Amino acid sequence: MKIFQYHIIGAGLLIGAAVIFQPHSAFSQVAQSINNPLVFKGVRGLWTTEAWTADEEPYTRIKNEILIAEAKGKSPDMMAMEYKVIALQKQSDPLPRFRWAYAAYLTGIRSKPYSTDKLRQAASGLGVFTPSPQSYEFTRLRFLTESFLGEPLNYPDLIIVGKRLARRNPKDMEVRVQLCQILSVGPTLADRQNAVTHAKELLSIKPKDFYYIGNLATVYNHLWSRTRKRSDRLAAIVAYRHYVRLAPSSVYRKNAEYLLKYLEGAKDGPLPKPKFKS
User: Fold this and answer.
1) Which DSSP state fits 12?
2) pTM (2 decimals)?
3) In what helix (H) or strand (E) does residue 102 lie, and over which residues does it extend?
4) Is the C or the N end of the chain the one with fewer CB within 10 Å?
5) What is the pLDDT of residue 26?
6) What is the pLDDT of residue 36?
7) For residue 185, how far is the Cα from the chain centroid?
8) Environment class of residue 55 by beta-carbon count within 10 Å: exposed (0-12), middle (13-18) or buried (19+)?
9) Rounded to the nearest 10 degrees, how much is the dihedral formed by the CA atoms of 179, 185, 190, 193?
10) Are 30 and 155 in contact (CB under 8 A)?
């Protein structure tokens, strides 16, 4: 079951549009804030290095129970509403929060386009500023949720955590795709170049899957927004054309067509410096 198919082709393409018109602004702020100890060395930064020592069986069981209930016809949205009540009554217990967050997360990514409101509910369920349960599954869900939400100031943390998760389980395609997307809008050129490498590797695993073709198009688009090189723009164009051809009924086809049209008419090279009236 490909429960993570909606971010790259939807949000990824939309992020691509934002990057086209604001190629450096938000991301330069990220680069400047990496050294801010209040942001990245405080409570948030702990999850980048903490050991995963928790018993993972209860978290895995919760995920399976929710997926089985969904398969039997119960919507994740209804489950999330039920689990929220219990979670708020037991805020110090990470398991009810995880149950609520996972159901909300599924609701968010199953929506077309994906639901930011539901994903923010999942983030609330995970309780970013509560004591960490030091669980791999808890951290994984938090990484996936926050990568969907795409807050620029979170990217440095997300890159570190995503790499840790991918090392733990190299076969976790859901994590690897989200890491690829976060790298593609990372604060450094090396991040974006690494995203292309990751996207090509993922596509080599499933070369005929339009989902991974759209992923490659998005990361090349983001790379071009930084390098402004003709070769990167043409690579994005080829991938977007391939995606549009293979996914005629996708709800994100119009996003891809919009970006394809923009890139086909775009100029390479440095952007002109803005002129200010004196």
Assistant:
1) I
2) 0.81
3) helix 94-110
4) C
5) 35
6) 37
7) 10
8) exposed
9) 80
10) yes
Amino acid identity, position 5 = Q
Phi, psi angles (nearest 5°) of residue 96: -60, -35
Give whole-number Cα distances, 30 to 90, 98, 107, 140, 156, in Å: 35, 29, 29, 22, 8
Residue 266: how many other CB atoms lie within 10 Å: 16
| Residue 84 CA: distances (Å) to CA of 12, 28, 90, 105, 107 | 29, 37, 10, 13, 13
Rounded to 5°, angle at Cα 137 from 133 and 139: 65
Tokens encoding 197: 């490498």
Distance CA(30)–CA(200), nearest Å, equals 26
| Cβ contact 219:180 at 8 Å | yes
Token readout for 246 is: 């293979």
What does the longest C-alpha to C-alpha distance in the chain come to? Answer: 67
Determine phi and psi for 260, rounding to 5 degrees. -60, -45
Q: How many CB atoms lie within 10 A of CB 77?
A: 18
Series of mean pLDDT values for 10-residue runs along the chain (278 residues)? 44 41 34 35 68 96 97 96 93 92 94 87 76 91 93 89 96 95 93 96 92 95 96 97 91 91 94 67
What's the pLDDT at 2? 44
Whether cis (ω within 30° of 0) applies to the bond prior to 170 is no
